[in-house]
Fold this protein.
Amino acid sequence: MRASQTILGTLRDDPGDAIVASHRLMLRAGLARKLGAGLYHFLPLGLRVMRKIEAVIREEMDAAGALEFELPILTPAELWQKSGRWDLMGKEMFRLKDRHDSDNVLGPTHEESFTSLMSELLQSYRDLPKNVYQIHTKFRDEIRPRFGVIRSREFVMKDAYSFDLDEAGLDRTYQTMRRTYRRIFARLGLSVVPVEADMGTMGGSASEEFMTPSEIGEETLLLSSDRKYRSNQEKTPCVYPDAKAIDATRAATSDLSTLERLHTPGAKTIDDVCKVLNISPRDILKTVVYLADGKLVAVAIRGDRDVNEVKLRNQLGALELAPADPAAIVAAGSIPGYIAPIGLKGEAITLWDLSLTTGTEWVIGANEKNYHLRGFVAPADRQSVDVALARSGDPVPGGAGVLTEMKGIEVGHIFKLGYKYSEAFKLSVLDANGRPVTPIMGCYGIGVNRTLATIIEQWHDEKGVRWPISVAPYEVCLVSIAKDDTEIAAARALYEALLRADVEVLWDDRDLRPGVKFTDAELIGYPIRLTMGKGYFQKGELEVQLRANGETLSFQGPVESLVEQTVALRARLAKELERQLEAELET
Ligand code: ATP
Ligand code: MG
């Protein structure tokens, strides 16, 4: 491609609303432009990168025996009603009516469509296992679209669904996908950490998320120092080494008026209470009130711990969960900042967190403004639940040492789904004895645009993107600084020879100052830059620069030889990436 004939769309200045590097650089390097909240146009350079990522994913999925399909994005509501997700998915699902007044959904994911289709296509146990996928557009009306295409409302996903005869089969497919994912991300130049993920209330039996470590990641990972234990904070169990057996001889507090009343004027936070009473947060029982599907739920938890809302939601099997607003707390007979774990009016239930097994007597709120109470004892027959957020410094569950925290971006997710969808869609095949059996499913997703943005997060510097050669929009940028027609003809000869050798080359033939062209080349981040200027025209030296590390080389000789040297350099970069891949897969 010639720069004079394409649309590069690079920007000199940082766009105002782009906070993170990948978002800023995607816009500045002319990969994408914003249309609206969570909506992006892809420009020619960005589309080339998308296509390359898709090609790597497709190659690896095909090599793993998966079959590519393409299903409609627009799906009838009946599919979603059948699975129950019409009611469960809430506002994240784009719903629209057609001209016949029928409800439809712009698919946020395609379990329903694929299972329904496969129920027509699979007949016998001989048809299994099967893994089917597509690389296609998804819609999600995210509450907070942000960071460019990392969280957008329209995006491309590779979504795969597997069908196996039994759990052992599903496990084989799952492990194959796990390896496939590691290969895909390594080929894309991404370093990822697979972590155990929350399975929600869907009844799956295993799930892993593939995270790229990043400061801007919305996910928190908890890892053991040897990295053998890796878990999303959402699902990490809390372990309390100082937990005691519950003292059944201590009478539980059933009447708050029997406790010592402490005047704590204005002390609404744990910190305030600690200061006023000169105690530690670990002496306090904090009561956090939620509204779960319309019901009040009080969580009693140690003062230095936070509630993990994912665990809480799973514990309650709740669809909607949100902190109760002050009015609801007052209506239940308490005061925000001074809530006691018992004595709330109405149908409020109290959950006792496991962290309370580390103590017996607690300071609690008095359900009264400016007062706390000392000496509260929780019921001995309570059912302790783990609804606290694990954090760095906590013991490794089932292991040695303590956890450390890391931020990450989720680029992929694999999940053993179980029978939920195959049962909902009455998918069954005949076994060897002619009896119907229900296949067990798995699902496997990769966000393609999010992956693209994440590659930029990992591969950039202050000047721009530094693409790994596997996904660069062009492998080579030929910058010509030509003064006359003869020099232009020489540049054209090299450009055409590179094309003939199947080198992906962008020839910056624009009539612009060299500085502008160099700045663009660095911003866009082609791995190899060839500069044909004075050095070449006077001494026959073609200047070569690698974007990754700034290394410079000089190629000499006739055009055919320059091409050969370029091809060899490209092979070297691919080899280096491959070595990185192998190192990555070993960990
Ligand atoms: P998140 O927790 O970030 O919302 P998710 O758990 O909803 O992700 P999945 O339903 O597992 O995501 O979707 C599979 C993949 O699709 C994710 O791993 C991610 O790479 C991508 N993805 C999900 N939501 C978005 C989005 N709004 N924009 C871009 N990519 C997304
Ligand atoms: Mg989501």
